[in-house]
Amino acid sequence: MMQKRRHIPKLTERKSMLLICEGSKTERIYFKRYAQQVRDKHIRVPTCSETDPVSLISFAKKCHIRLGYSLEEIWIVFDIEESSHERQQMLNKAKKEIGSGINLVLSNPCFELWFLLHFEYLTDPLNKEVIIRKLDALDADGYRKNVDYYDILKPLETNAILNAEKLIASYNHCEEDVLFNVQNNPVCNVHQLIKEITS
After folding, report:
1. Low-confidence ranges of the chain (pLDDT < 70)
2. How much is the pLDDT for 64?
3. How many Cα neighbours within 13 Å face the side chain of 86?
């Protein structure tokens, strides 16, 4: 008499993602919180002291090798901050360095633009100080870089995604051209990473 085999459900492997952030506070706090909330992906957000996109990409590649396991995606989170010729040159070099599995998440002028897009759609050129002032006005205690705003922002995420997509579309160019031009302010594609994490 043959024994009936017991059905054992297959364990699905979690997708592995490496997030390298230029900022040591705001971005890391935000994405580490996402990593804690998402169960079907293994997300690493290591500390990084690099500040230019080419060095961030190099750091990401070293991390990938050092971790010793297969990473399906690497995301580099970077602020453009200024519209100088030097910054454009740096961005052009970074664009050449990225390869398969490496994605750049750019914010012009800064990552806090993504936070602000949760609350409003804006198209006028901005600098970091203006964005921080606008965020200050939204928080009774004022905006602080080392605070976890995940719980405040998460319910407004759909609004931020729509605003970011609308902002990119407003430039009437292909998305890559919009993101890799330091003159395009404000713009960010943080929403692409968020959609990938939550998909």
Report:
1. 1-13, 68-71, 100
2. 79
3. 3
pLDDT at res. 177: 82
- Residue 109: the pLDDT is 96
What domains, with CATH codes, occur in the chain?
Answer: 15-198 (3.40.50)
Rounded Cα distance, 196 and 18, in Å:
12
Measure the CA–CA gap between 193 and 31, rounded to whole angstroms. 10
Residue at 83: amino acid letter: S
Spatial separation of the C-alpha atoms in residues 180 and 49, rounded to whole Å: 23
- Return d(Cα 94, Cα 87) in angstroms, integer: 11
Q: What is the pLDDT of residue 115?
A: 97
126 vs 123: CA distance, rounded Å: 9
Q: For residue 4, give every residue at least 6 positions away whose Cβ sits within 8 Å of its Cβ, in sequence order, or none.
A: none
Q: In what order do the strands lie in the sheet with 15-21?
A: 41-44, 15-21, 73-79, 102-108, 187-188
Question: How many of the other CB atoms lie within 10 Å of CB of 7?
Answer: 5
Beta-ladder partners of 75: 19, 103
Residue 195: its pLDDT value, please?
A: 94
Phi, psi torsion values for 39, nearest 5 degrees: -100, -25
Total residue count of the chain as it appears in this document: 199
Question: In whole angstroms, what is the distance from residue 81 CA to residue 126 CA?
Answer: 10
